[in-house]
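question for whoever is on the cluster today: can someone run the full assembly for these? two chains, 488 residues total. i dont have access anymore since they changed the login thing
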Amino acid sequence: MSRKTPLYEVHAGLDATLVDFAGYRMPLRYKSETAEHRAVRTAAGLFDLSHMGEIFVTGPEAGAALDYALVGELSTLAVGRARYTMICAPDGGVLDDLIVYRLAAETFLVVANAANTDTVRAELTERAAGFEAAVDDRSASYALVALQGPRSQAVLSGHTAAPLADLRYYAVMAGEVGGVDALIARTGYTGEDGFELFVSSADAEALWRALADADDVVPAGLSARDTLRLEAGMPLYGNELTAETTPYEAGLGRVVKLGKKADFVGRSALAAQAETPPGRRLVGLVARGRRAPRKGYPVVGSDGTPCGVVTSGAPSPTLGRPIAMAYVDSGAADSGLAVDVRGRHEPVDVVPLPFYKRS
Amino acid sequence: MSVPEQLRYSEEHEWVSGLENEDGIVTVGITQYAADALGEIVFIELQAGEGDTVEAGEPCGEVESTKSVSDIYSPVSGEITAINATVVDEPKVINDDPYGEGWIFKVRISEEPGDLLDATAYSKLIEEG
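^ ran it for u. tokens below:
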């Protein structure tokens, strides 16, 4: 039986199409996923992300514990700022990609993917054992609502006195929104400006109803979230990132801070991987035809032999053409590639990521 | 969920109309349940063209949505007499009007269709998921 988020009744009331995702009953779309996607690109969309994990790491050595547990150097993160990072296995495989917020000198909030929250909590607990730091998974008591799109700040400023204009990208502050206490973060997974609002589960519905009330705010589901992040070239755990993927293959070697003083889990494996060119690389593909490459479809070279695999793909509402991310063998040429769409080789062009960048 | 009384249905979520017609030409589409489950349809293709034959229960085309791809199965055997150019050009019409403007192809049936479901039986099928 999947769990319900604190906003389940709201979604049901909006007649959303619900799906099981990472153990939660989540809205896939409310009406049209394409309209929801476009609303986020042009105005604002409202997402329920309460399935995500919120794990607090606190204590005098919280920063040091995270330096050891994660590939980034979180002890250098300024209070009120956020950072994209990863937790890796000793062999360098990615266990999850994370956003870490430093809420106070000794308080960090680690946001994990829903499907990986149990793993991340267990690993953090084990890895923090030698430090004066406590790991507390508060996922069940937190709801996460994201307001994303160019109108987000204008909309949100109608519901809070917090100085949003001073809140930079990848920064966080506490404030009251729609009458409820929230952590207001300028982060997201859509390629647009926007905010992620962490509130107590009990306050989620009041917050949602306040924000959804604005004319140019459209509730948006997981389907739109997926095409938005794909256009923005952002990896999805389970697709582009897995325990069998290294950060270097994913083109995310920059998040691995090999230069940090502290030892960290995965260091020696990652240091070796950093020295060796990866056998495959993550590329962006744009299809010439109308058929969308999908996760798992083979990528083939000009002679028809397999040279890679699609990790994510969908028709792009913004580009008007199918787009995909794929792992392609490092030796394979960029030109003449095709994707095997159910037995037919559909030509694709390799393009730099992201597919879409906000102006 | 709309399941029109006068239509017949396949277990693969196609509908058939006009089985009572004297010319033996029936119209085929996919059900609202199928269209909703697929999400917004962005591409449709029939492997067979006008004049080609299709077999009941065999795949004869593909329908692709923003989220997934599925085969279209012909619910009847016979010869294709028409393909709806409107849905090929603008597949979303299938989402908007699956039982009307969103019809997909017409077939002159060559044999009595077998195990098609009536509206009650099809409603039961989709309720059971």
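summary bc i know u wont read the tokens: The longest helix of chain A spans residues 117-127. Chain A has a mean pLDDT of 97.
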